[in-house]
Specification:
Elements: E1 3-5, E2 12-14, E3 16-19, H1 29-41, E4 46-48, H2 65-77, E5 84-89, H3 105-119, E6 124-129, H4 152-172, E7 175-181, H5 185-196, E8 203-207, H6 220-228, E9 231-234, H7 257-260, H8 270-285, H9 290-299, E10 304-309, H10 314-321, H11 330-342
Parallel strand pairs: 3-4, 3-10, 4-5, 5-6, 6-7, 7-8, 8-9, 9-10
Antiparallel strand pairs: 1-2
């Protein structure tokens, strides 16, 4: 599998990353372990998780279960050296984790220690903040997000305090690198500026949503990503399953994400369903698998460091892995852009 640079570290990561957010809820541990084996065999050397996983829904009694499943696999196989692990500290408002408190220097140490214990490892390769303390336009908040009440000096002080705590973790050897998630252009630029002035570790990645249906990153963040060498870890490249075409004909398969989260986190809209119909027509016209076309589009974007692929079942993952060599020619790309112009923001 193709490898891409990891920021300015000199390291590389696989073009695809294995996502794990259903492990321990929809996906039992044995199935998850099979997925890990298959992913590594396919050349994937990066997995992404989070302390609050699994989701759909997040429950206090299951928080941390996904990391534990990964830790059991690492303990049983001894393959820690074969992969890089990215995990995320939960942000403000998620009451199932630390009662929804902010990310602070104290909770950074607590989150790192908890993830290390559950993962049964001595270091985390990319430690990410799941979302900003101040909020952002992600998770469909782009329609009403209002930053006018922010106090920039306090926000930047918060950044500096967190970077100082992260630097202590780097020096302890518990984390190797720092990554952002669900961040804005302004936020990312200031994390980078402070880090470049010695406040702490420089972010190497930004994990934001990106797919044929969600292309917010194409503007300001794309420019920042390319010029500052902070690669996108693209999550939901299949738009929570919409781009698998399994919901075409307005079907809702039993056990699917839509059966558990009917609006797919705000992604299921009349416009999105029509856009998917049009993208399916493009795939059909060019004799492409819809999943392969959607993933190939994301992976080929110049700012993408890795594309996070996740599957509820092993069979789904096998189907995804079968598409890893798909490439898109210029005609396919032109047809994709025509659909994008017709449906630029479907959710």
């Amino acid at each position: 599998m193709k490898k891409n640079p990891l920021g300015r570290t000199g390291l590389t990561v696989s073009a695809w990353c294995l996502g794990t957010m259903t492990w321990g809820n929809q996906t039992p541990s044995k199935e998850a372990h099979r997925q890990l084996d298959a992913a590594l065999d396919a050349g994937i050397d990066l997995i992404d998780t989070a302390e609050m996983y699994p989701v759909n829904p997040v429950r206090r009694e299951t928080v941390g279960r996904t990391e534990r499943i990964i830790g059991l696999w690492l303990d049983q196989t001894g393959r820690r050296h074969d992969l890089k692990i990215a995990t995320k500290q939960t942000g403000i408002g998620q009451t199932k984790v630390r009662d929804g408190g902010r990310i602070t220097p104290a909770t950074i140490r607590e989150a790192v220690e908890g993830s290390l214990r559950r993962l049964k490892t001595d270091h985390i390769d990319i430690f990410q903040f799941h979302w900003p303390n101040r909020g952002s336009w992600h998770f469909r908040r782009n329609w009403d997000y209002d930053p006018s009440a922010q106090k920039p000096k306090r926000v930047l002080q918060d950044f500096a305090e967190c970077l100082d705590a992260l630097e202590r973790e780097v020096k302890r050897g518990t984390i190797r690198h720092f990554g952002l998630s669900n961040e804005t252009a302004w936020g990312t630029a200031n994390w980078l500026r402070l880090a470049d002035h010695g406040a702490g570790p420089r972010p190497v990645t930004i994990q934001n949503e990106y797919s044929l249906l969600c292309r917010h990153f194409d503007t300001d963040l794309a420019e920042l990503s390319l010029n500052e060498d902070i690669g996108l870890m693209a999550y939901s490249p299949l738009a929570a399953g919409l781009l698998t075409s399994k919901y075409q004909g307005r079907q809702i398969p039993p056990g699917s994400r839509m059966s558990l989260v009917p609006d797919l986190g705000g992604r299921k809209t009349p416009q999105a369903l029509e856009a998917v119909d049009d993208y399916c027509d493009v795939a059909f016209k060019h004799d492409l698998d819809m999943v392969g076309m959607a993933l190939a589009f994301v992976a080929a974007r110049p700012f993408v460091a890795t594309t996070i692929v996740g599957a509820t079942t092993f069979d789904q993952l096998e189907g995804i892995l079968a598409q890893q060599d798909v490439t898109l020619n210029d005609e396919v790309r032109r047809d994709i852009e025509r659909v994008h112009r017709a449906w630029p923001m479907p959710f």
